[in-house]
Design goal:
The structure is a homodimer of 311-residue chains. The first copy, chain A, is α/β, with parallel strands linked by helices. Chain A has helices at residues 3-7, 29-46, 59-70, 80-105, 142-147, 174-182, 213-224, 255-263, 272-286, 298-302; strands at residues 10-15, 51-56, 113-115, 119-122, 134-140, 152-155, 158-163, 168-171, 186-188, 195-200, 203-206, 228-233, 239-240, 248-249, 252-253, 289-294, 308-310. In chain A, β1 (10-15), α2 (29-46) and β2 form a beta-alpha-beta unit. The radius of gyration of chain A is 19 Å and the shape is globular. The relative contact order of chain A is 0.16.
């Protein structure tokens, strides 16, 4: 709890799904551990100058668990929020053990590092319970998707199952996370958007949903007073006319422009749109830096040399 | 970090599988949440006088995940240690949210409470990798067991699958856990015995095993300097001649007697034997209190009015 540590700014990094499973991969355990080294190496280097929180998605992993439990009726099925909790354990362990290893490689004798199970309050009347938007699990062809017993949407990875994705209201463990930041703990939390619960009086009950990890990360960044909010994904930053001949990468984006592009449908629902919304929300509410960048350019983006910066 | 808090003794409570799923239950989510209230209510009351660590088993839950992934070849299979990590997330969330609710009910405004993903180093040459002893998953009849593609053993819950269960050597997050205890955090950790890893130079790699949660709890109790180590299970304490006409409950047990009963095979492998070994190990190495008791009598046992105390 030295005074110099207290002065380090706080950096929150939200890792996209491709930090673990890249497009075209099936998602074996070897692939996932191998892929993690690229972002984690950069995060370890940044941890010398920042107090760091890492959050992460769980779309493919939670979809896998859902498929597995549907294939095995002899085991009682668990609700979706419990599967989110399972992915927090799984992915948290994978990130933590990779980070531990890389910190040791860097000669850092001991840096406190924890993975916290996190749950997040949502509103029982959230409109998303009637209109699911969050893609999870593997991509299917159109023909396969038509035979599935649940709703799907078309995404860049094929047709994917969709589930409700309510807005996060508050992170239950935010006070614990703040205390740990004061002591310069590296913290992995809010995995898979956090476990979604509604609060009724003094009771919490889980709900069948997956919260968007970028929106919960923006909220957490705000709740703990982060100085930089960095979203790491599979493209080098925000683009307009994505995939068209006049595609254009944006190095800076002010809130007004961002709002216009969002309204004109420039960004994919369930992919870039929630990232842009999350970055906007953080900048609007705190006046601090938000950056959207690629997994490969986390360090360069911190230095202002890559990614899209929201101003 | 007030001085009065520092003076509270440390109590480590290891919750047995029946804290979540009772004999004869299938293990629906409603059953698991309902069952948890009995031990958690007592732990919440004790948390006013103790700094508390909760550990827990995962036998049925990790067995369920294994069955589910075997039933679904389209999803890449994950190794056993990743399934342990998943159960740490699942059960940790269930205990934490139940405890949060009960603390609120008791009028406690804020008590820091975290669930930590924990991994535990084991020896790659541990003999248990050749001779599996840890029962997981559901119980089967003898006829069913004979048709299963993996080894089983007879237990009080029927024939169950067995996996390797190496001795825990050290808990990777022990320094973090100590720091959190200093700040009077309630801590849920080492779920399912902890995620088993072997250390090779600076790298950790997971291994296909489930560590006994009582043995890892004894080690953790020792590593963090616990004052009382309490194992809560489905019987009221240690018995000799269990299930026979001359069955006898033991209120106190000294190490020498315990060793004799253990050697003469009085205690079931994979059930009471590792509990007795864990309690003995803690008392032997620290000279402090260890108690084996039932889930229903945690508070009474702390007061010395129930359970078996090791002296």
């Amino acid at each position: 709890m030295g005074k110099t540590q207290r002065r380090k700014p706080i950096l929150l990094i939200a890792l996209g799904g491709n930090a673990l499973i890249k497009k075209g991969q099936r998602g074996t355990i070897e692939e996932q551990f191998y892929n993690l080294r690229l972002p984690v190496r950069q995060i370890a280097a940044l941890s010398e100058r920042y107090r760091i929180i890492i959050t992460h998605g769980n779309g493919p992993q939670v979809g896998h668990l859902l498929l597995q439990q549907e294939a095995c009726p002899e085991v009682p099925a668990l609700p979706l929020e419990i599967l989110v909790a399972q992915t927090e354990g799984q992915i948290g362990y994978m990130i933590e053990s990779t980070l531990d290893e890389i910190l040791m490689d860097m000669g850092i004798e001991f840096r406190p590092l924890v993975t916290l199970i996190t749950y997040v309050v949502v509103d029982r009347d959230d409109p998303s319970f009637c209109r699911p938007t969050k893609p999870i699990g593997p991509g299917y062809t159109r023909e396969e998707a038509e035979r599935l017993p649940y709703p799907t949407i078309a995404t860049s990875k094929g047709y994917r199952r969709v589930v409700a994705s309510p807005m996060p209201i508050t992170i239950v463990e935010k006070r614990e996370i703040k205390k740990l930041l004061e002591m310069d703990f590296l913290i992995i939390c809010c995995g898979g958007g956090g476990i979604p619960v509604i609060r009724e009086g003094r009771a919490f009950s889980g709900v069948d949903a997956v919260i968007d990890k970028d929106l919960v990360s923006a909220l957490l960044a705000e709740e703990v007073g982060a100085d930089i909010f960095l979203i790491a994904t599979d493209v080098s930053g925000v683009m307009i006319n994505f995939g068209k001949p006049d595609e254009k990468a944006l190095h800076q984006l002010d809130l007004e422009e961002a709002r216009q592009h969002l309204q004109s449908g420039q960004f994919g629902i369930g992919s870039m749109a929630p990232k842009v919304e999350a970055a906007m929300r953080f900048v609007e509410n705190t006046g601090k830096r938000a950056v959207i960048t690629s997994i490969a350019e986390i360090e360069k983006s911190e230095a202002g040399k890559a990614g899209t910066e929201f101003v």
